[in-house]
Amino acid sequence: MSESSNLTDIARRNFLARAGAAAGAAAIAPGVFLSAPASAKPVGEAVTSKNRWGILVDTNKCASGCNDCVTACENENGWGRNDEPESNAQQKAHWIRTVDIKNKATGFTRTLPMMCQHCETPPCVDVCPTGASFRRADGIVLVDKHICIGCRYCMMACPYKARSFVHEDLHEQKPWAPRGKGTVESCTMCVQRVDNDKVPACVEACSAENHNALIFGDLYDENSEISKALKTHDNVEIRADLGLNTGVRYRGI
Amino acid sequence: MKLSLNYREIEGKSTGFWVLLGGLALIIALAGGATLFMEHEGHYVTGMNNQIVWGMPHVFAIFLIVAASGALNVASIGTVFGKPLYKPLGRLSGLLAVALLLGGLVVLVLDLGHPDRLIVAMTYYNFKSIFAWNIILYNGFIAITIVYLWMMMERKMNKYYKPAGYVAFVWRLILTTGTGSIFGFLVARQAYDAAIMAPMFVIMSFAYGLAVFILVLMAAYNWTNRPLGDAVLYRLKNLLGVFIAAVLYFVAVFNLTNLYATEHHGIERFILLDGGIFTKLFWIVQIGIGSLLPMAMIYHPTIGKSRPAIATAAALVIVGAFAQLYVILIGGQAYPLVLFPGYEVTSGFFDGQVNSYSPTIWEIALGVGGVALALLIVTIAVRVLRFLPETLEDAVVDPHAAGGK
After folding, report:
1. Model confidence, pTM
2. Could you tell me the CA-to-CA distances from B326 to A193, B49, B113, B215, B243 in Å, in that order?
3. Which CATH superfamily includes the segment(s) B15-400?
4. Which of residues 97-156 of A touch B (CB under 8 A)?
5. pLDDT in tens, B52-79
């Protein structure tokens, strides 16, 4: 009787020791990963505010009629074209679009891509009742599709018309860019690529065609190409009056 | 000698009563069908889109929510401001407030992209969002008003009804401030982003709620053959006149301030001058038919004493209310966002264009269903509980007025 209870005690002690070791390893592991020299973020590790991702758009290099960044986004994230056959043109989603502007007084024209500006203080995040609209520590603004109730208040609040509501059932989505009827979506700055040390699809496409109008990078790393370019050249935020400190900046307007 | 005040359930045996119940139930059933269709298919079957994201259901929902808080004013005037004439009306006032709010909330929830996630809305809160606050304010309003009603109606609890009335009064002011702030806090849109939105919605609620209250009161007493004296009715309609004028004042200040700032000339020009349907709705329906005409009718020395005219004036206020909310909500979204001041803007996503919206039958059905639900709740409640005094003749509500005749 007492022997068997001793055996039970030993078994329990062994179990606890192993569990403790496992818990300790789990607790230490993130620290170990953090000290890794590679900039690639291992899967499962939280993003940090050490980086702030941004895009600089040089509109001097944006050609009127060029749609390469938009097409690349559609292909990467699975929206546009025939993904929403029932929705009319005003109802279809747009994660990124090209906008033509013409100064009324001078006639000066420009073409530029417009998408989520990944604000530091995003109005869409402020107004979201459930917190589905959120900003990652590294500055990327996203929608948690699991808790988005589809109220569209974020769309009312966004100064850039960057968000779209999905008006119908969708099929054959990209596994890395989930979309769903009744929820709101927008440019994710291609988190699935950024988290794997790649640049967003729009930036890649622009460079591949040798336009080089888009620079992606870490705004907090003063040695990054984007930081150097922002320091050297004049650039603006769209609706700078709102004081949102956007992650997307523009040159040439 | 003041006659005693007795509350009694309505008899509810007439054909008319059952026709009313059946009619309202039918409308609710149709609205339910329309909602199922919209939810099953998705919002592509509605007139809403990625430019006009809030449509007809929101016009109805916000009307009902704003009117709900306003409907409680009648009870507040009795309890908080101690006006004896309004006290017999307190129960109906509270009932109407709860019913209208429930109707509005149902419409709002059923228009969500995911009404099935109501539990998410109730359990995940972002406290910086005025929407999140409103979820608490709306639920709290219903709870507080029900407690207030209980204290008014349960003799043993009568002594507590005054504090409950104060809480309800303050809560309703905060609630409508929250509703107005849904728009006031929208920093990016030309039509909104103004602190005056909050008090303007409060004053709009006074007018909308009282108009609904007058109509329901007149219908209830007329259809049940209970006496409704001039003292009550004239007091209410005069108050409605004041509220209409107050709304006009706020609308004037809001637009004048915008007209002063060059930055806002675009949106003002759009609403006041060349916005097509919105300009017509603003001047003809909201200002003309919905404000000036009913005010003239109410204060006219002879027309103002005619009951059909008073009922018509109240109905016109409601028509004007819908026009006002349509202009604020849809008009405000139809006007394009200004991303590049001083530039002409074009894109494949309708930048720089006035956005169009045509409500579909499904959206209108959902909205009307909310109104029907509110009225059904009131109809059943006055049948089963003692909300309505047996008589509201002058001698009961205001012995002085009766004696003075």
Report:
1. 0.91
2. 43, 16, 21, 22, 20
3. Formate dehydrogenase/DMSO reductase domain (1.20.1630.10)
4. 97-105, 114, 123, 125-132, 147-153, 155-156
5. 999 999 999 999 999 999 999 999 999 9
